[in-house]
Specification:
Length: 409
């Protein structure tokens, strides 16, 4: 008898019919009385609709972070109760649990919470009583018991963390795509599905914009050694397994995939004094507001005047808060000005194969040059290279880079 955690995303439970189908499929595929925990997201676009409601009260509702969590956590509460009813109509014992009831403890950072600990006792008791246990994704509670959500896409993290706390045999993520692809198949016709990918490559791809998994969930899977099977809700085909090491595929690849992200904005702080502590002032002010910064470049602008430009990117969703913070810091630092560009996008290649394999960056830049795509900012990690380009050229860029590394016969 195995213990399996299965997570179903919003599109998998977007209407009553789909909810009933999820319950049927789980019952049909259950073997040997396996113990099953199901984590669900809110139905369809519910979370977006709730955010939209809040913006009708206040243009910037995220300043009321606790109330946003109180609001957003209701989305998952709808889907757990409906799915549980669906199981019951099919004669299957089942019980729904909110994040709080499932023992998911988070820090107190509303709307961007992190799971600190899970006390799985209630879940284990319910399983012992023969229930399928349906847990609300995306939410936990802080020390006070207040609801805290885990950032957009956070149900993935709920599922993987629960799998870890329950010592589950596997964690399956059911979604509207049938696995992880070498590039977004909606953009690149020849993108191929991978049978396996390592945690560190998946984490890098997720961080760089491949939307299938929340990056934090991959991090949690890696820390807790939980293999994650990403597969389709709508077919029975095997998907992609995210795990520590490759077991079956040819390891002779240089890169694993091309990721892209058009939800980024570039911020340039121009003419800041080139003194110790300047980067610290800018980035600590942003960190205080929990804003992630990427692609940081500092250049010497004017040696005689001893000033420099500081360029970096942030997620588009963080731009309005980031701009306020940076405008203030820039004026405190006597900077010449702050430039914001929104029509930018990031295209990246990812793969452990680039370690100790020179010439990979050159191949990426050559492909972009051949396609006439101008590179604005470049950044690298051990297993990735990213270029900031114009968003209007993104589709073309992803395709030419993919063709360069995965040529069609
Ligand atoms: N419902 C939340 C969202 O839309 C969490 C999730 O789907 O994972 O972001
Ligand atoms: Mg998702």
């Amino acid at each position: 008898m195995a213990l399996i955690v299965k997570k179903f995303g919003g599109s998998s439970v977007s209407n009553p019919e789909r909810i009933i189908n999820v319950a049927k499929r789980i019952i049909e595929e259950r073997k040997n009385n396996d113990k099953i925990v199901v984590v669900v997201s809110a139905m369809g676009d519910t979370t977006d609709e709730l955010i939209n409601l809040a913006t009708q009260i206040d243009k910037d509702p995220y300043k009321y972070t606790r109330e946003m969590d109180m609001l957003l956590s209701t989305g998952e509460q709808i889907s757990i109760s409906l799915l549980t009813m669906a199981f019951k109509t099919l004669g299957q014992k089942a019980v729904s649990l909110t994040g709080y009831l499932a023992g998911i403890k988070t820090n107190g950072i509303h709307t961007k919470g992190k799971i600190l600990d899970i006390n799985p006792q209630r879940v284990l008791n319910e399983l012992e009583n023969g229930n399928i246990v349906i847990v609300a994704g995306f939410q936990g509670c802080d020390q006070l018991g207040d609801p805290v959500t885990l950032g957009r896409g956070g149900s993935d993290t709920s599922a993987v963390a629960l799998a870890g706390a329950l010592h589950a045999d596997t964690c399956e993520i059911y979604t509207d795509v049938d696995g992880i692809y070498s590039a977004d198949p909606r953009i690149v016709k020849n993108a191929h599905k991978m049978k396996e990918i390592t945690y560190c490559e998946m984490l890098e791809m997720a961080r760089l914009g491949s939307g299938v998994m929340q990056p934090r969930s991959v991090e949690v899977g890696q820390a807790l050694h939980i293999p994650i099977h990403v597969r389709s809700t709508f077919t029975n085909k095997p998907g992609t397994i995210i795990r520590e090491e490759y077991t079956m595929e040819d390891k002779n690849f240089v890169i694993r995939g091309v990721s892209h992200d058009d939800k980024v904005a570039k911020i340039a702080v121009l003419g800041v004094p080139n003194n110790p502590g300047i980067a610290y002032s800018i980035f600590s002010a942003l960190a205080e507001k929990n804003i992630d910064v990427d692609m940081i470049v500092q250049s010497i602008r004017n040696v005689e005047k001893n000033v420099t430009d500081m360029v970096f990117t942030v997620a588009l969703g963080d731009l309005s808060i980031a701009k306020k913070v940076v405008d203030k810091t820039a004026s405190d630092l006597n900077a010449i000005g702050v430039l914001i560009e929104k029509d930018v996008a990031k295209v990246s290649i990812v793969g452990v194969g680039m370690l100790g394999n020179p010439g990979i960056a050159a191949r990426m830049f050559k492909a972009l040059a051949t396609g006439g795509v101008n590179i604005d900012v470049i950044s690298t990690s051990e297993i990735s290279i990213s270029c900031l380009i114009k968003s209007s050229e993104l589709k073309e860029a992803v395709n030419i880079i993919h063709d360069e590394f995965f040529p069609q016969n």
